[in-house]
From TrEMBL:
<protein>
    <recommendedName>
        <fullName>Citrate synthase</fullName>
    </recommendedName>
</protein>
<dbReference type="InterPro" id="IPR016143">
    <property type="entry name" value="Citrate_synth-like_sm_a-sub"/>
</dbReference>
<comment type="similarity">
    <text>Belongs to the citrate synthase family.</text>
</comment>
<keyword id="KW-0808">Transferase</keyword>
<feature type="active site">
    <location>
        <position position="408"/>
    </location>
</feature>
<dbReference type="InterPro" id="IPR010109">
    <property type="entry name" value="Citrate_synthase_euk"/>
</dbReference>
<dbReference type="InterPro" id="IPR016142">
    <property type="entry name" value="Citrate_synth-like_lrg_a-sub"/>
</dbReference>
<dbReference type="InterPro" id="IPR036969">
    <property type="entry name" value="Citrate_synthase_sf"/>
</dbReference>
<dbReference type="Pfam" id="PF00285">
    <property type="entry name" value="Citrate_synt"/>
</dbReference>
<feature type="active site">
    <location>
        <position position="353"/>
    </location>
</feature>
<dbReference type="GO" id="GO:0046912">
    <property type="term" value="F:acyltransferase activity, acyl groups converted into alkyl on transfer"/>
</dbReference>
<feature type="active site">
    <location>
        <position position="307"/>
    </location>
</feature>
<dbReference type="GO" id="GO:0006101">
    <property type="term" value="P:citrate metabolic process"/>
</dbReference>
<dbReference type="GO" id="GO:0006099">
    <property type="term" value="P:tricarboxylic acid cycle"/>
</dbReference>
<dbReference type="InterPro" id="IPR002020">
    <property type="entry name" value="Citrate_synthase"/>
</dbReference>
<dbReference type="GO" id="GO:0005975">
    <property type="term" value="P:carbohydrate metabolic process"/>
</dbReference>
<dbReference type="GO" id="GO:0005759">
    <property type="term" value="C:mitochondrial matrix"/>
</dbReference>
Length: 471
């Protein structure tokens, strides 16, 4: 990738890592930092001009290159397979799954700094990677942790705005309300009102984005404690990293839950640009709405059952299986239950995907976590049975393009194991994680001066006439 300048040091480590990777040609990403610079902002400041030049060159030299044909099916089918967005922080391959700045999930687990030896990656490290394209050092990650802590104070009016909602409001409604209430502090909006030039848009976007990422776990934890723990709020603990502190504020302090939260936030952060939440954030921000407005909109998309809410649906569905068939159900009973779900016109939550065509690597790493930490958990064993039972049934249906499990099929049983049993809350965890990916890209959107989104829409009549003419 031209993105990175070559680095000569640490070549031993590099060649070891290259050997570990089975991805020969795609190891171009691997650039280990030699810089001792701990400041993310100044790193970005250095990177942005070269990326602006790169985009300019791409436009001027290749602007007219065709990327494929748009069919009527694509227009009617939710724009599947239509390349139409620039999204720098991650790329999804249908067979292989997500890569964050070129790194697969197992590679992130190996390369990103962890809280302990061979532990799960720290989400701050992923944030650094998404923003700079470089694997950070532990020192850089610690500095970023501190910076996020220093930005984490949430103004009181945000809690009051949430308190104005009934406690029975869905946790995602409460989270999105809180994020929208955070907007009054937007540095981007203030700077825009003062007439900031376009070339500087990225700076207040960076300020808003880091503050939002820092504050959203506090808001998320407030929602949880308000709904499920009689409003007994647990203050943040500045000695903890981002994932562990979030877990702590929710009320879960076991070392395993801290590890799970680090992994959870890391793998849910970003999934390229076309999914509903990422695309919504990007679209809204393209109108120069600030990161708070854009991310609140993204959360509303994440709250839909075909997207982020599926993690809630999965645990509720799994519990309904146990209620009907008991914990020690046979595979035959399980098959019958899956068919019953399908015949009642519902989807099997946690299976299928708009882009992926194999088991989601985000599912696999959660499965590995479960095999390591909770192999005997009865619900984990049920999830494993579903992995065997559901794909052949969905294949038999004949219309499902991807019968394999996605990220949401697994997360609930892990959280449930450590005591976070309230399934209705699960999408909030997903939302907190997504702030990292969506805001990272928003900073680059402004740094690269990406355009207002305005695709063309047509009517059925227009399509009918067009097809008649071209027949
Ligand atoms: C994720 C999802 C929305 C992708 O939708 P998609 O891109 O339209 O998927 P497909 O092209 O494979 O869909 C073709 C058909 O199979 C159905 N299908 C797909 N996944 C299914 C599932 N898990 N259970 C039952 N039917 C499913 C679709 O509903 C569609 O049916 P239709 O033609 O009658 O409308 C879909 O797989 C789904 O609803 N999964 C369950 C919800 C879920 O887990 N969401 C989280 C995604 S990360």
């Amino acid at each position: 990738m031209v993105f990175f300048r070559s680095v000569s040091a640490l070549s031993k480590l590099r060649s070891r890592l290259v050997q570990q990777s089975s991805l020969n040609s795609s190891v171009r990403w691997l650039q280990i930092q030699t810089s001792s610079d701990l400041d993310l902002h100044s790193q970005l400041k250095e990177l942005i001009p070269e990326q602006q030049e790169r985009l300019k060159k791409l436009k001027s030299e290749h602007g007219k290159v065709q990327l494929g044909n748009i069919t009527v099916d694509m227009v009617l089918g939710g724009m599947r397979g239509m390349t139409g967005l620039l999204w720098e922080t991650s790329l999804l391959d249908p067979e292989e799954g997500i890569r964050f700045r070129g790194l697969s999930i197992p590679e992130c687990q190996k390369l990103l700094p962890a809280a302990k030896h061979a532990g799960e990656p720290l989400p701050e490290g992923l944030l650094w990677l998404l923003l700079t394209g470089k694997v950070p050092t532990k020192g850089q990650v610690d500095a970023l942790s501190k910076e996020l802590q220093s930005r984490a104070a949430v103004p009181d009016h945000v809690f009051k705005a949430i308190d104005a909602l009934p406690v029975s409001a869905h946790p995602m409604t409460q989270l999105a309300t809180g994020v929208l209430a955070l907007q009054v502090q937007s540095e981007f909006q203030k700077a825009y009102d003062k007439g900031i030039p376009k070339s500087k848009y990225w700076e207040p976007t960076y300020e808003d984005s880091l503050s939002l990422i820092a504050q959203v776990p506090v808001v998320g934890a407030y929602v949880y404690r308000r709904i499920y723990k009689n409003g007994q709020i647990i203050p943040k603990d500045d000695s903890l990293d981002y994932g562990a502190n979030f877990s702590h504020m929710l009320g879960f302090d076991s070392p395993e839950m801290h590890e799970l939260m680090r992994l959870y936030v890391t793998i849910h952060s970003d999934h390229e640009g076309g999914n509903v939440s990422a695309h919504t954030g990007h679209l809204v921000a393209s109108a120069l709405s600030d990161p708070y407005l854009s991310f609140a909109a993204a959360l509303n998309g994440l709250a839909g059952p075909l997207h982020g809410l599926a993690n809630q649906e999965v645990l509720l569905w799994i519990k309904s299986v146990v209620d009907e068939c008991g914990e020690n159900m046979t595979k035959e009973q399980l098959k019958d239950y899956v068919w019953k779900t399908l015949k009642s016109g519902k989807v099997v939550p946690g299976f299928g995907h708009g882009v992926l065509r194999k088991t989601d690597p985000r599912y696999m790493c959660q499965r590995e976590f479960a095999l390591k930490h909770l192999p005997d958990d009865p619900l984990f064993q049920l999830v494993s049975k579903l992995y065997e039972v559901v794909p052949p049934i969905l294949t038999e249906l004949g219309k499902v393009k991807n019968p394999w499990p996605n990220v949401d099929a697994h997360s609930g049983v892990l959280l449930n194991h450590y005591g976070l049993t309230e399934a209705r809350y699960y999408t909030v965890l997903f939302g907190v994680s997504r702030s990292i990916g969506i805001c990272s890209q928003l900073i680059w959107d402004r740094a690269l001066g990406l355009a207002l989104e305005r695709p063309k829409s047509v009517t059925m009549e227009w399509l009918e006439n067009y097809c008649k003419k071209s027949a």
